[in-house]
Amino acid sequence: MDSRKMENPDLDIRYTLPDRIEEWSQGAVQDNGHDYVDEEGHILAVWLKTEDAEGWWPKIVELLKTEKFEDNDLSQSAQVLVSETPNAELAGCRQVWPE
To answer: pTM for the whole thing?
Structure first.
């Protein structure tokens, strides 16, 4: 998520977003940490884990489009990436949304 594209760049989102996704998915998608992924500290990555990334990412995108998180429409500032490898670095991930 790029804080420069957020209406309310509240750092609590690093907890509230994965907590909501875990609750909404009934535990099928879980929090796996967060980190800044740019040198300037504007882009916050929230890592999630699941047994079925290909099946869950489209559902997560729909959640991002329909709910606000800390008063932010994340469909305007988030990207969704998936990886076959647990805990992959960004270079080992592929962006699936936006296309």
So the answer is: 0.92
